[in-house]
Design brief:
By secondary structure, the chain is of the alpha+beta class. The protein has a single domain, classed as GIY-YIG endonuclease, CATH 3.40.1440. Helices cover 39% and strands 28% of the residues. A hairpin with a 6-residue loop joins strand 1 and strand 2. The protein is globular and about 35 Å long.
Length: 82
């Protein structure tokens, strides 16, 4: 089964981003937008702006950690989709 690393951008005046991983990307985005996702994402509406596919959970978690902690890469992806 594939795992996805994804980045969401909030649909607000001052957009913020959220990075996560999941097995079912479509279901996860629905959860985030319904207020049942991660605590940080509650109360906002989100748009998928970036995704990568991995064959193992370990690879996905490693990439998620890298993107979350690489502010330069995160900003570059965010600015590409403003």
């Amino acid at each position: 089964m594939d795992f996805y690393v994804y980045m969401l951008k909030s649909k607000s005046i001052k957009p913020v981003t959220y990075v996560g991983y999941t097995k079912n990307l479509r279901k996860r985005i629905i959860l985030h937008n319904s207020g049942k996702g991660a605590k940080f994402t509650r109360g906002r509406k989100w748009k998928l702006i970036y995704k990568e596919i991995f064959k193992s959970k370990k690879e996905a978690i490693s990439r998620e950690y890298y993107i979350k902690n690489n502010k330069t890469l995160r900003k570059k992806i965010k600015l590409k989709y403003l």
